[in-house]
Amino acid sequence: MIRFDFTGKVALVTGSSRGIGAAILRQFLEAGATGILHDFDDATGSNLKAAHALAAEFPGRVKVFAADVRDAGAIEGMMQSVQTEFGGLDILVNNAGILKDRTIRKMAPDDWHSVIDTNLTGVFHCCKYGADILRDGGRIVSIASVAGLHGIQGQSNYAAAKAGVIGLTRVLAKELARRKITVNAIAPGIVETAMMGDIKPEMRDEYLKQIPLGRFAQPADVAHTVLFLSSEESGYITGQVLPVTGGWLV
After folding, report:
1. What positions carry a catalytic annotation?
2. What single-letter DSSP state applies at residue 121?
């Protein structure tokens, strides 16, 4: 059995105070990496509270950064701080994202722009300034979505953003190949996180019937896939989008 070893590697996971991001960061830490825990605080302050609670589980091995992925200057500054403190970056995981689901008739322009700005432009900012400090042979993995491949009703903003992430992934894979940096994306289906609370029970039941493996994904299912695409063993895979859906919409 291959057990991934990231000892000596520096991994930055955006939006990693909770949910999928926290699961990804935790697995990197358990595999020996130095972790950079990123989030952007909400009005309640709960994101950074969760971030520091997670960091406390791994004393001396996690650095917490707060930066708005929509703000190019903030992300550039964060990457410069990572360069100064750690000498560079080995793995960048673009996970930060939001949902504001509405049918297009009911979707306010602000709902559109906020999702595009966070879920697509935010990934661009992190890739642009992250690539400057990534060491040769590094890894970029972005969390896209099955919505970006197939479209999900009521998610025109989210699907458009995630489709953009997929396009960005394929372009960057070509642009960074000369440095042996691989760039891939994961397209999860429905994952059991707090965001699922917005799905009505009858819709959950209907979705579940359509998943051949008979369950929703857990955050760890996505995290395992991220670790594989970040490993030495995946070094000849780039520009790809890997669905993690339990067989749904394949």
Report:
1. 158
2. I
